[in-house]
Automatic annotation (TrEMBL), chain B:
It comes from the Bacteria. Residues 4-179 form the Transketolase-like pyrimidine-binding domain. The keyword Oxidoreductase applies. Keywords: Oxidoreductase, Thiamine pyrophosphate. GO terms for molecular function: magnesium ion binding; oxidoreductase activity. This is Alpha-ketoacid dehydrogenase subunit beta. Signal peptide: none annotated. Its cofactor is thiamine diphosphate.
């Protein structure tokens, strides 16, 4: 039984299998994002593009804590969540490519991944914009006496915007089944948490709203999952909102075009030393749960998935210009303008 | 058909729609216990309970956004924002979210919600509480903006707005709440996106919406009675979509137009109407399209200054005279 084993008890086969599954998912995020960066430099992808590199354990741990019936809202750094939540990698890549088969039909791009089928209701580019929406979704669940939970992800910088305060206040007042997750990668673009937040221990903000909260190592997939499960259970069983802060790092710039010149070499080295994918790789091998060769096979498999996703995106056609006016209104209206820039308002000579 | 106030028409319609559809619920500051700043929701908390008549904190961005999220899951929230001035605090949720969600995600979820909010000056509320910023919303594709001027339209457009699958900004007006008119029985919705010719005429077209459409009718009656001038009134009712064909048809008949608006002139709703007339009826125009709009100042508190800044019925008469003089048509019908 438990003799001298400290925090690493002999893993059961089930645990090893579970951990390997997480490793595969984290690797999918890693390879997908690396390939995305490449596609961006090849000008296949446009606009703003933010990667989850360095946040793989956080993404996978959080997604392991919610169920199919639950809803997810995220900010614009959303590719990894989409992949692990169950969106088809080909359709995610097609969205980044701005193609017809993209999850948002090419209307949203990198920042606006949305798929009703997996209940991921956006991808939002305005910092803090998703918070009131997520609270509203939780309100709808509560209105219908449902048992779903809403998870609302955000970055560390979001904790300083008014919508954060307004939404957390409402969440407690109205007993909403919602879990707020602050993914603290310690940088809002180039601004550090200490530069922007008077209380840099962000999870403590929850106390202003009588909301339970916790901080967890975002580089440890199991720790993230278990902490998130506590939060989800509180929301589901007790209709109490929860704030979870995960702390990890950003392996690259804010977006793919940011060389992150504002970071010192020491800082970058520190983040690299905590790379969650490499960390889990080494842990699996050290624990004897896998061999380096076995993990390389997983990697090769993931590469194939990402390659197929790119091929799918490449082949998907661009949206038809004739569809330009299809999504302005859900209820059609008379006198809805359908003019292109050079069209006259009224037929010439009429 | 019953005669009732604009306020009563709104109240009765909210109640009827809540009885009809359990997914319809109300949110806003002071709408429950306080029964609404303008008493539109009086009695509804007692009848429907706090789940469906939800008092919110003073957090326009938060509760308006929560309504957007609830609508994404298929509920039909009707939000009251105490006055349109405070909607500016929710601008991000209205313009960046409510208006974008259907399109930005390729039509996967619509946002069936209504934001009811009154505009209007003339109550000595000073600069930050007397604005008419409906333009910001009328400018934004993805939103619908309606502006009823009569109790009958208040009812028919509110029914249409609640049943619509898109976010609708429903513009009310402080000065209209006590006005009365005939309201049809039943629950026939209006068609969003259609203007109405509320008075037929042949000499000049008056284009207006909300309070100024009410003023336009009064002015038209006076012009007919005093001077035999036959003014046609086009009540826009819907600012987005804008019913340009109805405006153009009228101007083709009368060959001149004055636009009445409670907002500022430069870049205002009237500018769009005038530009549309120029595009669609240029060859029919006998005079430049004039606009009667608010003076371009933050609205002052002192009564004489406030009155001077706001467009009045007399201002409209003056501009109608000037326009008809310009086309040599002042004597029409007078002999």
């Amino acid at each position: 039984m438990a003799t001298t084993s400290r925090k690493r008890p002999a893993r059961s086969a089930k645990n090893a299998e579970e951990l390997l599954g997480y490793y595969r998912q984290m690797l999918l995020v890693r390879r997908f994002e690396e390939r995305t960066a490449q596609a961006y430099t090849e000008a296949k992808i446009g606009g703003y593009c933010h990667l989850n590199l360095g946040e793989e354990a956080t993404v996978v741990g959080l997604m392991a804590a919610i169920e199919e019936r639950d809803y997810l809202f995220t900010n614009y750094r959303d590719h990894g969540y989409a992949l692990i939540r169950g969106m088809d990698p080909g359709r995610v890549m097609a969205e980044l490519y701005g193609r017809q088969d993209g999850v948002s039909k090419g209307w949203g791009g990198s920042m606006h991944l949305f798929d009703t089928d997996v209940r991921q209701l956006g991808g939002y580019g305005i910092v803090g914009g998703q918070l009131p929406l997520a609270a509203g979704a939780a309100l709808a669940v509560s209105y219908r006496d449902g048992d779903e939970v809403v998870m609302c992800q955000m970055g560390d910088g979001t904790t300083n915007i008014g919508a954060f305060h307004e939404t957390l206040n409402i969440a407690t007042l109205w007993d909403l089944p919602i879990v707020f997750v602050v993914v603290n990668n310690r940088l809002g673009m180039g601004t550090t948490v200490e530069m922007s937040s008077a209380e840099p221990e962000l999870y403590k903000r929850a106390s202003s709203y009588r909301m339970e909260s916790a901080r967890v190592d975002g580089n440890d997939v199991i720790a993230v999952r278990d902490a998130a499960k506590v939060a989800v259970e509180r929301a589901r069983e007790e209709q109490r909102p929860y704030l979870l802060e995960t702390v990890s790092g950003r392996l690259r710039g804010h977006s793919v075009v940011d060389p992150a010149a504002y970071r010192s070499k020491e800082e970058v080295d520190e983040v690299r030393a905590q790379d969650p994918v490499a960390g889990l790789h080494d842990r699996l091998v050290a624990d004897g749960a896998a061999t380096a060769e076995g993990l390389a096979e997983i990697d090769a498999d993931v590469h194939r998935i990402v390659k197929a996703a790119v091929e799918f995106a490449e082949k998907s056609p661009a949206p038809e210009v004739s569809s330009l006016f299809d999504y302005t209104y859900a209820s059609p209206v008379p006198n809805d303008s359908r003019r292109l820039p050079a069209d006259p308002l009224f037929p010439v000579g009429a | 058909m019953a005669v009732m106030s604009y306020r009563q028409a709104l109240h009765d319609t909210l109640r009827a729609e809540m009885l009809r559809d359990p997914d319809v619920f109300l949110m806003g500051e002071e709408i429950g216990r306080f029964e609404g700043s303008y008493k539109i929701t009086a009695g509804l908390l007692d009848e429907f309970g706090p789940k469906r008549v939800r008092d919110t904190p003073i957090a326009e961005e938060g509760f308006t956004g929560a309504a957007v999220g609830a609508a994404m899951l298929g509920l039909r929230p009707v939000v009251e924002i105490m006055t349109i001035n405070f909607s500016l605090l929710a601008l991000d949720q209205i313009v960046n979210h409510a208006a974008k969600i259907y399109g930005m995600f390729g039509g996967q979820r619509s946002v069936p919600m209504v934001i009811r909010t009154p505009g209007g000056g003339g109550q000595q509320l000073a600069a930050t509480h007397s604005q008419n910023v409906e333009l910001f919303y009328a400018f934004t594709p993805g939103l619908k903006v309606v502006a009823p001027s009569s109790p009958a339209d208040a009812k028919a457009l509110l029914i249409a707005s609640i049943r619509d699958n898109d976010p609708v900004l429903f513009l009310e007006n402080l000065a209209l709440y006590n006005t009365k008119g005939e309201v049809p029985d039943g629950d026939e919705p209006a068609e969003i996106g259609r203007a109405a010719v509320t008075r037929e005429g042949t000499d000049i077209t008056l284009v207006a919406y909300s309070r100024m459409a009410h003023v336009a009718l009064q002015v038209a009656e006076k012009l007919a009675a005093d001077e035999g001038i036959s003014a046609e009134v086009v009540d826009l009712r819907s600012l987005r979509p804008l019913d340009r064909p109805t405006i153009i048809e009228s101007v083709k008949k009368t060959s001149c137009a004055v636009v009445l608006e409670d907002d500022w002139l430069t870049y205002g709703i009237g500018a769009e109407v005038a530009a549309s007339i120029s595009d669609g009826a240029f060859d029919y125009l006998d005079a430049p399209v004039r606009r009667v709009a608010m003076a371009e100042v933050p609205l002052p508190y002192a009564k004489p200054l406030e009155l001077a800044a706001l467009p009045s019925a007399n201002d409209v008469v003056t501009v109608v005279h000037q326009t008809l003089d310009a086309v040599g048509r002042r004597s029409v019908g007078a002999h």
